[in-house]
Every structure is written in structure tokens, then in C-alpha cells.
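Here is one chain, start to finish.
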Amino acid sequence: MYFSLPKVLETSVFSSIPNDQIKSDPHNEWTTTQPMGSPHESLIEGPSFDKEGNLYCVDVINGRIMKFGPKGEFSIVIEYDGWPNGLKFHKDGRVFIADYKNGIMVLDLNTLQIKPLLQRYQAERFKGVNDLFFAKNGDLYFTDQGLTGLQDQSGRLFRLKVSGQLDCLLSNIPSPNGLVMNLDETAIFLAVTRANAVWRVPLMLDGSVSKVGTFIQLSGGMGPDGLALDSAGRLAIAHVGMGCIWVVDPSGEPVYRINSCKSKYTTNLAYGGVDNKTLYITESHTGTVIKADLDIPGKTMFSHL
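Its structure:
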């Protein structure tokens, strides 16, 4: 099958972690558990906007929640004993964090208190939760990645219902990572990093999943990480190691290739700016947030709502 070449877009720097806030310890606890060659200074991920237009991100390695103001002003919100890997805002203003070390955490920005919400599934601790997404009805979907890959295809996809019921939807994933639902929320797009693919996970009427398949098969780099959806139903895919973002239409045909102006560790992404038509991208190797303006009809949905 052949597609037309996607339009190439370039990025510019929005902001970055100041040099004096970059920590450098190649033997820190996080780095020694990861494959060689992974960033060992700061690992910026999880971009998510609050209602005032501030961009919050996580620094996995150093257990930090960071904030970039509308003009890129940098500040540290909180530093704690954890490995925050993903971040999303609840509609009530609370910050939910997928913490690789501690499970699902909740941060109250008024008190700066961070507390665990979920640390186990039944009696078992999570492998290492990675990213999360809120459905319109308030249900929370999140991935449990750990060190899974093609050598250990036991990564999991969970759903925490508003009622408090926790369901394991899939348990056979080789490195589940970013996730987002399609526009009508009948399916989940799931980044499967070590398979270098994005899966489509259809939802059944009873809430279970069936007929899971590959939606996009990538090649090269390290694989897909973060995902985001725009108001036209187009899926943006952060391709780590390739140094770009792919944007595909609802049928999977490539629309844009967005190139990183920094390094190739393009990890996560979120829409923001005027009418949410600017895509903000974390480039983790340099601790930078880069951005690109897209041509999107109408207003674009927040990827975290």
C-alpha cells in the first residue's frame, strides 16, 4: 500500500529546563535500571496544560513536577521520592501522576501534597505505570509498562472506573506506553513501544475489549511513546529515536511529519496555544519543550481531558 508523502513541519523551542536545574549522575537509581544509552540527567515527559495555560511536565529521573508558564517561564512545583512518568489533569483541577516507582499518585496543587491513589492490582504491585488518560465519563485508563518488551510481553492496560472498580483490560503487551481514545470513545489507541506499533483497542458494550489489532506499524528509532488526538480525529505519535512526530488521519494515512529541532528523544506531546492548534512536544535528551503549529479545523480537544 502506498500513501502520499506527508507534509513536513519544523519545530521551534518553546522552553527548556535551565542548565543549573539539569542534574547529572550517570549512576542514579533510574538510569541503572534502564537499557544503556538512556538519558541520565533529566527525563522530561508528560506535558499537560492547566486551565490557565500553564504547561506541567514530569522529570522521571529526579522525581520532579515542573511548570512552564505561557511564555515558557520555568519553575519546580514539587520534588519527591518517585519516578513520575505521566501526568494528566482531572476536570476538578487535581493532578494525576503515573509514577513508575509508586503507582498512580494524586497531587493537590493548593497544598502541594502528593498521595498514592493506586499501588496494587489485587495483591500485586504494578510493574511500573507509565501514562494515563481520562475518558469523558471520568474513567481513568493507564498503562503498566515496567521493563516489558518482546522478551517479556506482559505489559498491561488498566481502567479505573469512577465507581472505584479496577479492571485489567489487556495483559499481553510488549511495552505499553502512551494512550488516547478516539473521538467517540469506542476505542483506545495504545502506543506499544517495543513492537514499534500503535494498537487499536476496541471497547465492547460491557466495557471489555475485543479484536485488538495494529493501527500503525512504524519502523526505525525506538518506537512510539506519547499520543494525542485533535478535533479532526487525527492521531499524533511521538516517535522516540526517530526525532519526529507522525500525524495520521482517522484511517491511518500520514498527514504530517514534524521534525525535532533538538535531539531525537521526542517522547510526549499535548495540544495548547490559541484554539489548541499548537502541538507541544517534550524532547527528553536535552530537557526541552519544542512546538509546531498545525492546520486543524475548528478547536482542538485537549489530549488530557
